[in-house]
Amino acid sequence: MDFRASIGLRSLALPKLSRWQKMLLPVATLLGTAFPALAQAPQNPVIEVGVVQRFGEEPTDQLEIEPLSGDRLTVRFTTGGQPQTLTTNRLRLEIAQMPLEKAMLQERLVLSSHRSFESAEDSANQWRDRGIETEIAQPNGWEVWAKREVYQSPLLRRLLLQNLRQQGFEQVYMDTHVVDRVPKTAFIANGYRYNRDRVVITSANSRIRVTTGSGQRDRKLYGGSLELQPNAYGTYTLVNDVPIETYLRGVVPHEIGPSAPRPAIEAQAVLARTYALRNLRRFAIDEYQLCADTQCQVYWGLGGTATVADQAIAATRGQVVTHNSELIDALYSSTTGGVTARFSDVWNGPDRPYLRSVVDSVSGVWDLSQRPLSEEQNVRAFLSLESGFNEEDWDLFRWRRESTLADISRELKEYLGNRQHPLAGFSAMGELQVVERSSGGRVRRLAIQTDLGIIELEKDEIIRALYGPRSLLFYLDPLYEPVPTAAAAAEPQPEPVLKGYAFV
């Protein structure tokens, strides 16, 4: 089956494209000539989405949970090993900080830290190849931990840390905290308070409203059921168990917008379905599968559904994209900057043959084979072009951000300090230099001079460490302090003083 035709991309042959048809060009051009195939996924499996991931981080955290008018909630929990059930028209979840009789040591051996799950997964696979059992966590950013069930005791963890440091793995570190109190959850229903760590909440019509704050955006309606459960960080996660076709109703209109043409929305539905099913392993450590933010896909529940999106989801029901009989990494973004990227240009791990660097244009504005963007002068020329591209009227198609050396130094210190990097204590910073680019222009390595040595940032870690770049498609323009005018023409002019950089 022709992927382009099957998801309504035959309009690509038209000389004049709408904004939304233009936006879908990367979906087709990314795949080059090796188009994956459409396949049929299992019919409407239930997936587990963490919609409130860190309930209990703040002692004032509360959740109000209600059914729709005329319905009631059924709450299931366990008391003394026996299952219990109650019904109510309202449930409130609260947090109390419970003091411990004796302070306790919490620690995990962090093998690596990453901005993205993709790079974390590649790192975890490499550690496993060395014989070290791992698990992927997301306490803040993504981290690879030595598996807690295997390295149970402080002695085992310290022996492993010592061994790895002796082998030259200097960025492996022990994340240690002394805890004297822990958050404990309770729910209030029908005037009674129940202290429970796990609660399952259902309703007759499978519609439940959750309120996390006072704003309109803090009230969301979810299909399916809810479950409150402990996570790996000492807090709790509210998980939405929802059929995937219902889940897509809360994703598709927010990822593409209901004003897009119907074929474009159908394409988005296929990609979102594929992405979800391909990524169900992300939160195995916490016993759920996906999140509801941009670390997965934006999921708003049923509060912002759109008829045209619902129709597109129904028309493509069960359809996914595969390559060699496996689900593809159906990666997409709001803006490409005029050229798409290979997988390894942004993340660590093997390239996917269907993700390629392709200029996002139908007018032949740039030829990558003749003018590769791995060359600095070509990148500057490419980013100076503002017309001839499919996204040229998008806000972030071209951008510029300026950062002083003081700002860059502060951001870098915080980034390195959080990772217990051996050069985190630098006191002076010098020049920034792009060391390596991909053929599609993305910065793969950025070197920063410090008084303790050169610090290299790779791929999307650059965006994690520094506020300046919005993406990896940028070049550096040095910014200098104004040079004071010399009193006499014969006097030597002072050297310009570097004050920062513009990321362009």
How many strand segments? Answer: 24
Number of helices: 12
DSSP strand (E) fraction?
A: 25-35%
Poorly predicted regions are: 1-35
- Note the gap between the termini: 41 Å
- The percent range for helix content is 10-25%
Broad shape: globular
Q: Kindly report the average pLDDT value.
A: 90
Major sheet details = 8 strands, antiparallel
Structural class: alpha+beta
Rounded radius of gyration (Å): 26 Å
Q: Which key phrases capture this entry?
A:
single chain, 12 helices, disordered N terminus, 7-stranded mixed beta sheet, about 500 residues, alpha+beta, 24 strands, 8-stranded antiparallel beta sheet, globular
Structural commentary:
- Helices cover 22% and strands 32% of the residues.
- By secondary structure, it is α+β, with helices and mostly antiparallel strands.
- Strands 3, 6, 7, 8, 9, 10, 12 and 13 form an 8-stranded antiparallel sheet that branches. It has a 7-stranded mixed sheet with strand order 5-4-11-14-15-2-16. Strands 1-17-18 form a 3-stranded antiparallel sheet.
- It starts with a helix and ends with a strand.
Provide the fold topology.
Elements: H1 3-6, H2 19-29, E1 37-40, E2 46-55, E3 62-67, E4 73-79, E5 82-88, E6 91-114, H3 117-129, E7 134-137, E8 142-146, H4 154-166, E9 173-189, E10 192-194, E11 199-203, E12 207-211, E13 219-223, E14 225-230, E15 236-243, H5 244-249, H6 252-255, H7 262-278, E16 290-291, H8 307-315, E17 319-323, E18 326-327, H9 343-346, H10 376-384, E19 401-404, H11 405-418, E20 429-437, E21 443-450, E22 453-458, H12 461-465, E23 476-480, E24 498-503
Parallel strand pairs: 2-16
Antiparallel strand pairs: 1-17, 2-15, 3-6, 3-12, 4-5, 4-11, 6-8, 6-9, 7-8, 9-10, 11-14, 12-13, 14-15, 17-18, 19-24, 20-21, 21-22, 23-24
Helix pairs in contact: 7-8
